[in-house]
Design goal:
Strand content: over 45%
Number of helices: 0
Shape: globular
Helix content: under 10%
Radius of gyration: 20 Å
Largest sheet: 5 strands, mixed
Low-confidence stretches: 221-237
Length: about 325
């Protein structure tokens, strides 16, 4: 275990490992991204992204050669090796975009729908091509899986649903009470997908529920279409399969019922376990399949803000206020 500091004293909003696992990135709004060596804890690079007060997404793409950030300023693409900002585009169309790598480019989820993004380079510079996609029933997507396969959102403005990003159609409805901010709830739930997209967790302020994504989608020949008007009679889609949670973790003792409980959490790379922040900045590991508590760690840091696990599943890292970072072995 070691504790280190990022490039500034700003709070850490995101931590994520490089695809090869040799280093990890620490994102701090109003500063940028600091690259830290996993073995030594030394800073090996800095990507300055000024005038960005909040990140909606941070990810490595192209095998780690580039870092992409989504924010209120749109999408920023940076060179990992040099720290150079290559692109900053889409302040209006890509405001607060949620991003995932989906070959041959990126997929971006915004409040107005999905967009395909492609990064191209030539002698004159680097460009970001932005193409909108039509989403079934204008479903509002509030989370997207790192693998680019799934989205979580509200279907027909009423039912929470899992969406197939490839087809832009609703795959299954989700057995969860979330119906959108317009329904009077205090805000959107936090959605966390496993890196491989096999599971996702929904934290609505009261508890954390985990769902399995389907390995095989049901036959959807007719189900995906919008209601069709024929001779004055509306034909509605067939009822959709309902996803039930496989694991639930309730509000900890001592947290008032009037307070929203939205802990930081992340899945292990194989999606079998969930790392989650508990009261007093403790971090626990839970086996999702058995519902058993598999480990606990406690670090003397001021307010943990984010968690990440290395691609090999052996090491975890947590970010906190004032730019502090702690890394430890999970075994």
């Amino acid at each position: 275990m070691f504790t280190t500091a990022a490039g500034s004293k700003h709070p850490v909003s995101h931590v994520l490992f490089h695809p090869n696992g040799t280093m990890f990135a620490v994102a701090q709004p109003n500063y940028g991204v600091t690259l830290i060596d996993r073995a030594s804890g030394n800073i090996v690079g800095t990507v300055l992204i000024p005038r960005v007060a909040d990140y909606s997404s941070i990810l490595f793409i192209e095998g780690g050669a580039r870092i992409v950030a989504g924010s209120t300023r749109g999408v920023t693409v940076c060179d990992t090796a040099t720290g150079e900002v290559l692109i900053q585009r889409g302040r209006d169309t890509l405001h607060g975009a949620l991003l995932a790598e989906r070959q041959p480019g990126l997929i971006a989820a915004t409040l107005v729908g999905l967009r395909d993004l492609q990064i191209t380079s030539d002698e004159s510079g680097t460009w970001l091509n932005n193409t909108p996609r039509v989403v079934q029933s204008k479903a509002v997507i509030i989370a997207i899986s790192p693998c680019g396969r799934w989205g979580f959102g509200v279907y027909a403005r009423v039912r929470p649903a899992l969406l197939d990003i490839g087809t832009c159609r609703v795959a299954m409805t989700v057995n969860h009470p979330y119906c959108g901010i317009s329904a009077g709830l205090p805000g959107r739930p936090m959605i966390t997908f496993a890196p491989n997209g096999e599971r996702f967790a929904v934290c609505d302020g009261n508890d954390v529920t985990v769902f399995d994504t389907p390995s095989n989608l049901p036959d959807d020949d007719e189900d995906g279409a919008e209601p069709i008007q024929q001779t004055g009679t509306a034909k509605a889609p067939k009822p959709r399969a309902l996803m039930d949670p496989i694991f639930r973790l309730g509000r900890p003792e001592g947290v008032p019922a009037s307070d929203l409980w939205r802990p930081q959490l992340t899945f292990t790379p194989d999606a079998r376990a969930l790392l989650i922040r508990r009261p007093r900045n403790r971090v626990q590991l839970w086996d999702v399949a058995t519902g058993s508590h598999a480990g606990e760690w406690s670090w003397r840091l001021d307010s943990l803000t984010c968690l990440a696990i290395a691609p090999d599943g052996l090491t975890a890292v947590a970010g906190a206020r004032f730019g502090h970072v702690v890394m430890w072995d999970l075994d």
